[in-house]
């Protein structure tokens, strides 16, 4: 504000009429006559605030000044900056135009409404305040109004137009009502003077030094004088960058010569090494370290010394005034930072080495791509080659830009790295296909590809955000028959000419270029061209521009408290990481006590406390002013200690730490603060949400770990609520493997070879998840403040009140300060919506945001989409335009930047609790339900067309409809998304179906919506035919296992529903049995197809459900098909058990059911009453007999398979826990149905001795079956059971072994041996044990029978247990058994082991015989009294368990070697291959070393634990 306004009372309501008049004349700067009118009408401050434009016009004030006063009044009401301040991007002279100059400007642009605006006294400052509505109020329709506004916006990219002279103003003023407009225009044009002075610098040849000795001395002295003006740190930086400069012999100055040298010695070294180029090199280095003033001074000296041409032969031409300023305006939209454009596209033709040295500014631009017409560009001294010395560029051809956008962006790495496209040959590749083409040939062969490339850039890559196309005219274009010119033509077809600028240092080349464009396109490109600056001046000007968001040279911590420089090229390569440097934010502002920095700080703090995402700057401000408070949540210390502990004590190469949190409670800020505070100890980075393969991300992390240092440095990564949470464990495994494979990283640097991932996980029940997770590797934070935190927030508010105006409007801060008080939030929502009008576009958009931000926190709508929604494209920044349109809601809105796809801006509500409260207010106060808003969103075509920002919005809407949350205090998920659940409760199924049907038309290529609708229909509506229709529709879109599983679920639910109905009915219809069996057949087939699809072609490695929630990820092998078959089968058993002749409660009838399902008797032999109902039942069963008889063996097969799955592998999925419980519950039903016998059979057995033996055999088999001891995996589960149970099992097997028919059963013999081993471990003194030698003999018999290619690994597992060598006894056959067990398990169990590690149930101890086998449960017993089972499991998982004395005292370390990365156990000359249980213990480099380890026995072979190198 100006000083005059500061004199006015602070509260406008207290202004007198004279104060109002003074404000109008001094601040608004209108004619005093208008101020007099206000004073005469007794308009004081209180009345002024009630005025609108209509009242001002009624006072007899014309439209021009009325609009200006109204705009200033609006900002006064909002306490914002003045109108001219907000329009500062317009040329300042426009604001000073008189109404006559406005008239002349409009006449010059052939506008028919010039006279109308002149009559309304529209001067330049008034015109800047006009909007479309203001034009409409004076009778100018939308079309001409938009045209005027567009022309006005173009002025920001042009030099100040020199309007008519004072004499002409008088003429126009006197004659504008009478004179013919054409004559006025003609007279004005004749008298407009050219403002561009003819300026030319002439060289003073007398000042040029010709003596070589004198010249060297002068150069050295000049360099020294320049260097002495550098600060100490800047001088060190100069030396560091200088070492990269090569002389004519391609030799650099060694760092050893530069280190610790003063300015004199450095100047001498530089002069001696670079000779005549010493001054040029000095200038270039000064530019690189951002010393632009010194570089400019040196350049002036070089001009005087004759080392630079100050002008070319074309300098006799008239020069445009201040082209440097014009260049800045073109590249920054009238600002001072290159951040005004999100991305640049550069088109360049052939360049010379002399030009290339001045094109360094390209490295500073956010280049999307470069279209290069120089085939030698990638040769030494070429433009591309030079660019790649400091930045990363991927070299492409135009044809590579064809295909779907997402595919092209991903494959070419667009937005992350520069794409350098060779558009006419590439001579560094020796092939005819890469030769440069003449125009005619190029037109035939390459023109189409280039046109498609240009269309792709303009219509796909630059269709949102702000982008600028720069044509670098480095060599003359003399004819329109030139590929370079054709490319300009292509760009004009697909974008506005104002988006294309030209840079050319040759005036003659530019003149010809302009002539061609005027001739062909009738476009004047002068306002958007720079053609009178040398490339050196262009380079210096651009390098002097912002962004000011990062330090000039980034530093990273290294060993021994040292640091290394992060080069820009290395940072370009690490596309998945946003790296935090040691000196982040330092040396960006020259004067941190100056107004520029203070203003920047105020803006950044205000944005953060309002609700913007935290930036590194916020922590930098905190460090700079330690007296000021930065509130840390109490969990800060817990998380910090967790990280330090894992870094110090964990033996894992990569550790994943989960940080569960409520949305919007400050967890991300806390996590970033921890990174900031640990940046001296770790190399810190934020992991971006990237589509890159996990292996590539892991390689980038290792690259960061080893960057610029022989010794690795520990890495701390932050993952902040990434979308790809399901692949997190994959990434951890990839990082571990990358550490192991890294040639320079070994266990000697184990403390530094650590990657710690802090994973922020948004959850609606963080405390419950924390309890379920392992407490040593997770923490949680909730939306509830402690007393200490409340006190800190109070202190911070007092501080903000001293430094910021109205901190009570920092709503996110205030919400947290109020401890998330619901009353405060609801009052805020109510006040925000007090003028809500649903019929307006701004209200609709706000309702959309309220819905989105409630159900998808921090989602937003791109600003470009908002502009399209409102139908506006204003001259100002998009955020200004959109926020002005949304002004009555702007207090709770904020603009965020999304970094993906090159970056763009989105609009969202400050905090998700505000969005939630606003949604409630809309429902309660305006009867606008969530369903209404959802349907409205689905109605707009704008939101569902192709494009990156629209794809992101579509993904948010889809997530809102289908993403399910975890149930509180449960491992299961809610059946539907929170939004659908709410709509169902409020309005019922019809509305839900309407939404899903509409959504399915919008997401026609996505299976998730019809799948969700199918689930809704079968769960809530019980409309099974309709549910099946939608499930089949989903399958036709994407037939993945989860969709096919949904079809099975529809059949299962239908069958259960039928069974429930039949329970309530007194009479039964046999036809229901037929219907139910058909449902079961179809359901089982669906589950089988789902499982087959999951097993086939590695689909299970890539498929995942669309409705997977962030806090409920699916990991590992999918067994849902197996479980579904079990569930359907037992429903069939339940149906059959209710039939009159199979009634389960009747013993003999139950025996009939068992016999029928076992296939012992056909249905025709089952005794039943002869009646019509029973006969019909029998007929139906007869029709489906084959299906029914196969159910029991199929169920047994599933139980055996799943038993293997849960026994042999480590459970790492909560779904496994759920499925394991389901399987166990069904096995109890199985035992009850098939493994029990009626008491009446005992009497039969006693009366018939011959039958007695068969019944005894059957009885033993059933006992083994019901105890799950009839399988190898089942017996292993008894290692933690009682010895008494195991003795019964051993006796059963002994009895079966002794019967004649059972002796030939090899698996029976194998199980018997294992049963003895388990019994020995439980009770070595049991009388039921066979001797060790007897067991060995039995095993040898079995091995002889099965050979080396048995279908199961069981016999070879026993061979390892029984015949593993000792130091005194060797068994050469053991290698054969190891090979056999690996081969058998790989062939028959490989799918079980996907994403799961095998479990060693037994370990090698210190004794002999069976005594040397130590079971894992016996080892666990020593710890379960001291710690929780979850914590113990964590010790086993990370290998720390082997540090415990209770383990090392019982197990024996086995000596061995590692050769070519393969681990061997060695016994004298015998070498036995062993799998390492954890690859992180293996050094890379394929070094042959002696090692030792503990040995465990798993079903896929021996495993080496705790590998240690002898040296």
Strand order of the largest sheet: 3-4-2-1-5-6-7
Subunit arrangement of the protein: single chain
Number of DSSP-assigned strands: 25
Beta content: 5-15%
Specify the structural class.
Answer: alpha/beta
What does this entry look like structurally?
By secondary structure, the chain is of the alpha/beta class. Helix content is 52%, strand content 9%. It contains 70 helices and 25 strands. Helix 53 packs parallel to helix 56. It starts with a helix and ends with a strand.
Task: Give the SSE layout.
Layout (H helix, E strand, L loop, with lengths): L2 H5 L9 H12 L3 H9 L4 H4 L4 H6 L4 H15 L5 H4 L5 H4 L3 H10 L5 H6 L4 H4 L4 H6 L4 H13 L11 H10 L5 H11 L20 H16 L4 H11 L12 H4 L4 H12 L3 H11 L3 H13 L18 H10 L10 E6 L4 H4 L10 E6 L10 H8 L2 E4 L8 H8 L5 E5 L16 H7 L1 H15 L5 E6 L10 H12 L5 E4 L3 H15 L7 E2 L4 H9 L10 E4 L5 E4 L1 H6 L3 E4 L14 H16 L5 H9 L10 H15 L4 E8 L5 H11 L5 E5 L6 H13 L8 E6 L7 H14 L13 E8 L3 H7 L5 E4 L5 H17 L7 H7 L4 H11 L8 H15 L5 E2 H8 L7 H8 L7 E6 L5 E6 L2 H15 L3 H10 L8 H15 L15 H10 L1 H14 L5 H14 L2 H14 L3 H24 L5 H26 L24 H17 L10 H12 L13 H12 L1 H5 L1 H18 L5 H21 L5 H8 L1 H18 L5 H5 ...
Parallel strand pairs: 1-2, 1-5, 2-4, 3-4, 5-6, 6-7, 11-14, 11-15, 12-13, 13-14, 23-25
Antiparallel strand pairs: 8-9, 10-12, 16-18, 17-18, 19-20, 19-24, 21-22, 21-24, 22-23, 24-25
Helix pairs in contact: 2-3, 16-19, 19-20, 20-21, 22-30, 27-28, 36-37, 39-40, 41-45, 42-45, 42-46, 43-44, 46-49, 48-49, 49-50, 50-51, 50-52, 51-52, 52-53, 52-54, 53-54, 53-56, 54-58, 54-59, 60-61, 61-63, 63-64, 64-65, 65-66, 66-67
């Amino acid at each position: 504000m100006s000083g005059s306004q500061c004199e006015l009372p602070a509260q406008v309501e207290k202004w007198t009429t004279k104060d109002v008049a003074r404000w109008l004349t001094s601040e608004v700067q209108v004619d005093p006559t208008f101020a007099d009118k206000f004073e005469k009408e007794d308009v004081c401050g209180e009345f002024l605030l009630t005025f609108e434009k209509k009242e001002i016009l009624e006072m007899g004030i014309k439209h021009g000044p009325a609009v200006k006063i109204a705009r200033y009044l609006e900002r006064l009401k909002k306490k914002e900056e003045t109108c001219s301040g907000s329009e500062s991007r317009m040329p300042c002279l426009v604001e000073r135009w008189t109404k006559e100059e406005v008239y002349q400007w409009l006449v010059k642009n052939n506008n028919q409404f010039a006279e109308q605006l002149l009559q309304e006294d529209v001067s330049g400052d008034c015109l800047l305040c006009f909007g479309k509505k203001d034009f409409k109020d004076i009778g100018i329709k939308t079309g001409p109004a938009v045209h005027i506004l567009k022309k006005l916006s173009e002025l920001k990219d042009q030099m100040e137009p020199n309007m008519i002279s004072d004499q002409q103003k008088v003429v126009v003023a006197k004659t504008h009502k009478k004179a013919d407009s054409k004559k006025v225009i003609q007279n004005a044009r004749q008298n407009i003077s050219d403002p561009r002075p003819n300026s030319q610098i002439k060289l003073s040849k007398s000042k040029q030094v010709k003596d070589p000795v004198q010249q060297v001395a002068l150069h050295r002295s000049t360099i020294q004088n320049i260097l002495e003006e550098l600060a100490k740190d800047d001088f060190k930086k100069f030396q560091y960058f200088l070492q990269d400069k090569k002389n004519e012999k391609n030799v650099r100055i060694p760092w050893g010569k530069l280190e610790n040298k003063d300015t004199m010695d450095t100047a001498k070294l530089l002069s001696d090494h670079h000779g005549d180029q010493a001054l040029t090199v000095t200038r270039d280095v000064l530019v690189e370290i951002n010393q632009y003033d010194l570089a400019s001074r040196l350049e002036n000296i070089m001009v005087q010394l004759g080392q630079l041409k100050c002008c070319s032969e074309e300098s006799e031409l008239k020069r445009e005034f201040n082209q440097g300023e014009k260049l800045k305006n073109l590249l920054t939209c009238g600002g001072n930072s290159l951040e005004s454009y999100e991305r640049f596209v550069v088109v360049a033709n052939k360049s010379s080495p002399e030009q290339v040295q001045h094109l360094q500014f390209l490295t500073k631009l956010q280049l999307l791509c470069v279209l290069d017409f120089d085939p030698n560009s990638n040769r030494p001294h070429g433009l591309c080659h030079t660019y790649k010395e400091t930045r990363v560029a991927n070299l492409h051809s135009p044809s590579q830009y064809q295909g779907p956008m997402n595919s092209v962006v991903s494959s070419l790495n667009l937005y992350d790295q520069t794409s350098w496209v060779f558009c006419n040959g590439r001579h560094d590749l020796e092939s005819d296909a890469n030769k440069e083409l003449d125009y005619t040939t190029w037109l035939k062969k390459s023109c189409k590809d280039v046109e498609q490339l240009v269309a792709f850039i303009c219509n796909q890559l630059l269709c949102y955000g702000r982008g600028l196309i720069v044509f670098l005219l480095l060599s003359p274009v003399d004819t329109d028959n030139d590929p370079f010119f054709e490319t300009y033509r292509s760009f004009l077809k697909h974008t506005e000419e104002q988006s294309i600028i030209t840079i050319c240092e040759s005036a003659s080349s530019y003149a010809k270029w302009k002539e061609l464009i005027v001739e062909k396109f009738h476009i004047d490109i002068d306002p958007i061209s720079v053609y009178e600056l040398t490339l050196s001046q262009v380079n210096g000007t651009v390098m002097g521009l912002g962004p000011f968001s990062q330090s000039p040279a980034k530093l990273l911590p290294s060993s021994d408290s040292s640091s290394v420089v992060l080069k820009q090229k290395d940072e370009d390569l690490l596309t998945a990481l946003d790296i935090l440097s040691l000196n982040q934010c330092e040396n960006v502002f020259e004067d941190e006590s100056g107004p520029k920095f203070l203003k920047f700080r105020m803006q950044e703090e205000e944005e953060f406390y309002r609700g913007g995402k935290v930036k590194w700057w916020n922590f930098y401000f905190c460090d700079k002013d330690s007296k000021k408070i930065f509130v840390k949540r109490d969990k800060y210390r817990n998380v910090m200690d967790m990280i330090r502990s894992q870094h110090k004590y964990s033996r894992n190469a990569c550790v994943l730490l989960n940080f569960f949190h409520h949305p919007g409670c400050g967890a991300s800020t806390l996590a970033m603060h921890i990174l900031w505070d640990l940046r001296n100890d770790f190399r810190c980075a934020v992991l971006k949400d990237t589509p890159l393969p996990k292996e590539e991300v892991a390689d980038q992390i290792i690259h960061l770990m080893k960057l610029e240092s022989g010794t690795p440095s520990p890495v701390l990564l932050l993952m902040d609520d990434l979308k790809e949470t399901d692949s997190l464990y994959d990434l951890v495994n990839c990082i571990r493997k990358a550490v192991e494979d890294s040639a320079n990283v070994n266990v000697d640097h184990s403390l530094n070879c650590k990657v710690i991932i802090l994973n922020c996980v948004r959850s609606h029940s963080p405390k419950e998840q924390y309890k379920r997770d392992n407490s040593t590797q997770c923490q949680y934070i909730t939306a509830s403040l402690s007393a200490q935190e409340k006190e800190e927030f109070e202190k911070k508010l007092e501080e903000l009140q001293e430094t910021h105006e109205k901190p009570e409007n920092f709503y996110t801060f205030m919400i947290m300060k109020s401890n998330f008080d619901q009353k405060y939030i609801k009052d805020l929502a109510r006040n925000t919506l007090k003028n809500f009008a649903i019929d307006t576009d701004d209200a609709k958009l706000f309702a959309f945001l309220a819905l989105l931000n409630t159900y998808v926190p921090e989602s937003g709508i791109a600003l470009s989409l908002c502009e399209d929604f409102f139908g506006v494209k204003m001259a100002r920044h998009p955020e200004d335009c959109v926020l002005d349109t949304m002004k009555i809601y702007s207090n709770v809105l904020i603009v965020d930047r999304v970094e993906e796809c090159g970056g763009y801006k989105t609009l969202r509500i400050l905090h998700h609790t505000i969005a939630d409260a606003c949604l409630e207010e809309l429902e309660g106060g305006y009867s606008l339900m969530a369903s209404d808003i959802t349907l409205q969103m689905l109605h707009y075509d704008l939101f569902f067309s192709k494009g990156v920002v629209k794809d992101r919005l579509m993904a948010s809407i889809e997530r809102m409809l289908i993403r399910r949350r975890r149930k509180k205090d449960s491992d299961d998920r809610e059946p539907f998304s929170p939004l659908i659940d709410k709509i169902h409760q409020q309005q019922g199924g019809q509305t839900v179906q309407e939404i899903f049907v509409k959504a399915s038309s919008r997401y026609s290529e996505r299976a998730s919506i019809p799948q969700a609708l199918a689930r809704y229909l079968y769960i809530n509506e019980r409309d099974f035919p309709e549910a099946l229709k939608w499930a089949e529709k989903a399958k036709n879109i994407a037939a993945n296992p989860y969709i096919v599983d949904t079809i099975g679920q529809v059949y299962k639910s239908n069958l259960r529903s039928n069974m429930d109905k039949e329970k309530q009915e007194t009479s039964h219809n046999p036809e229901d049995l037929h219907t139910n069996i058909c449902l079961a057949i179809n359901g089982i087939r669906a589950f089988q197809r789902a499982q087959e699809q999951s097993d086939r072609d590695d689909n299970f490695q890539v498929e995942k459900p669309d409705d997977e929630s962030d806090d409920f990820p699916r990991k590992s092998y999918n067994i849902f098909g197996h479980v579904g078959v079990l569930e359907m089968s037992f429903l069939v058993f339940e149906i059959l058990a209710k039939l009159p002749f199979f009634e389960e409660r009747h013993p003999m009838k139950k025996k009939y059911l068992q016999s029928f399902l076992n296939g012992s008797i056909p249905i025709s032999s089952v005794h039943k009453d002869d009646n019509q109902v029973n006969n019909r039942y029998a007929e139906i069963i007869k029709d489906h007999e084959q299906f029914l008889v196969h159910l029991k063996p199929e169920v047994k097969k599933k139980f055996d398979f799943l038993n293997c799955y849960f026994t042999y592998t480590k459970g790492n999925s909560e779904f496994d826990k759920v499925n394991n419980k389901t399987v166990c519950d069904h096995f109890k039903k199985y035992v009850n149905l098939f493994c029990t016998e009626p008491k009446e059979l005992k009497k039969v057995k006693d009366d018939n001795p011959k039958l007695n033996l068969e019944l005894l055999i059957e009885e033993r088999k059933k006992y083994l079956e019901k105890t799950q001891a009839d399988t190898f995996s089942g017996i292993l589960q008894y290692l933690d059971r009682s010895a008494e149970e195991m003795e019964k099992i051993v006796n059963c097997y002994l009895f079966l072994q002794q019967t004649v028919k059972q002796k030939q059963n090899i698996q029976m013999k194998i199980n018997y041996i294992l049963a003895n081993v388990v019994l020995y471990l439980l009770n070595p003194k049991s009388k039921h044990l066979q001797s060790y030698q007897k067991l060995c003999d039995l095993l040898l018999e079995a091995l002889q029978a099965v050979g080396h290619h048995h279908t199961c690994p069981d016999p070879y597992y026993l061979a390892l247990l029984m015949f593993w060598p000792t130091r005194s006894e060797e068994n050469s056959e053991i290698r054969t058994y190891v090979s056999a067990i690996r081969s058998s398990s790989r062939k028959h169990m490989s799918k079980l082991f996907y994403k799961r590690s095998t479990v060693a149930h037994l370990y090698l101890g210190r004794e002999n015989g069976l005594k040397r086998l130590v079971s894992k449960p016996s080892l666990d017993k020593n710890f379960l009294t001291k710690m929780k089972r979850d914590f113990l499991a964590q010790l086993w998982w990370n290998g720390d368990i082997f540090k415990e004395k209770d383990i090392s005292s019982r197990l024996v370390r086995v000596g061995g070697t590692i050769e070519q990365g393969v681990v061997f156990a060695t016994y004298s000359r015998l070498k036995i291959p062993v799998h390492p249980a954890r690859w992180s213990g293996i050094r890379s480099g394929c070094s042959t070393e002696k090692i030792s380890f503990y040995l465990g026995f798993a079903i896929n072979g021996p495993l080496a634990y705790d590998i240690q190198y002898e040296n």
